[in-house]
């Protein structure tokens, strides 16, 4: 969960903080802060004679904004646009509304897909007689794609299902077990 800005940038704040202190204060990890700088979400920062980055309260607020937007699932380009809008407060907020509305549609679509997936899994579990594997509804449905209502109905219509890129990837010892 994100913290209120008053917790992120408590008063009084030293004028400039090194990256480690900025990371602790903002809740954004050091490598992530560097990444945001590389891709231009964070501006070029002043540096010490030792070439260390220095962060102001304004930078911490920007990091908090980015972190919160990421927590809500906005992609990098949407965040870039939102930051540009934030930097020009005299503009119309129509673009921000459009970005948030598009994200809301994505979330609702994923929720609908997850509900359809839940219903299919429930159907499989409910159909299992807890007897032998030869009559197991779970094994039967997984073995015959045609019996899966999720793939033959709502799941595909929502863009989730047959495409293997929709599946979580496993690495390390998990894949070695299969």
Low-pLDDT stretches: 157-178
CA-based shape: elongated
**Sheet having the most strands:** none
Question: Order of helices and strands, N to C?
Answer: HHHHHHHHHH
The fraction of residues in strands falls at under 5%
Compute the number of strand runs. 0
**Helix count?**
10
Distance between the termini: 35 Å
Specify the helix fraction band. Answer: 55-70%
Structural class: mainly alpha
Mean pLDDT: 80
Radius of gyration: 23 Å
Question: What descriptors fit this protein?
Answer:
mainly alpha; 0% strand; 57% helix; 178 residues
3D structure, described in words:
- The structure is a single chain.
- The chain has 10 helices and no strands.
- Mean pLDDT is 80; it is low at 157-178.
- The longest helix is centred in the middle third of the chain and has 34 residues, at 94-127.
- It has helices at residues 5-8, 19-26, 30-38, 57-71, 76-87, 94-127, 137-143, 149-152, 154-157, 173-177.
- It starts with a helix and ends with a helix.
- By secondary structure, the chain is mostly helical.
- The protein is elongated.
Helices and strands, with pairings:
Layout lengths: L4 H4 L10 H8 L3 H9 L18 H15 L4 H12 L6 H34 L9 H7 L5 H4 L1 H4 L15 H5 L1
Summarize the structure.
The protein contains ten helices and no strands. The protein is mainly alpha-helical and 178 residues long.
């Amino acid at each position: 969960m994100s913290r209120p800005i008053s917790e992120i940038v408590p008063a009084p704040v030293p004028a400039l903080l090194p990256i480690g202190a900025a990371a602790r204060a903002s809740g954004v990890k050091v490598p992530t802060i560097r990444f945001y700088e590389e891709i231009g979400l964070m501006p070029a920062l002043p540096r010490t004679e030792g070439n260390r980055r220095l962060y102001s309260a304004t930078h911490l607020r920007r990091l908090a904004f980015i972190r919160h937007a990421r927590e809500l699932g906005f992609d990098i380009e949407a965040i870039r646009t939102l930051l540009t809008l934030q930097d020009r407060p005299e503009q119309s907020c129509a673009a921000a509304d459009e970005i948030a509305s598009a994200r809301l549609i994505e979330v609702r679509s994923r929720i609908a897909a997850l509900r359809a997936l839940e219903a299919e899994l429930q159907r499989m579990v409910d159909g299992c007689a807890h007897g032998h594997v030869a009559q197991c509804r779970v094994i039967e449905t997984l073995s015959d794609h045609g019996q899966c209502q999720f793939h033959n109905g709502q799941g595909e219509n929502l863009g989730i299902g047959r495409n293997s890129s929709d599946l979580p990837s496993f690495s390390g010892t998990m894949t070695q077990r299969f």
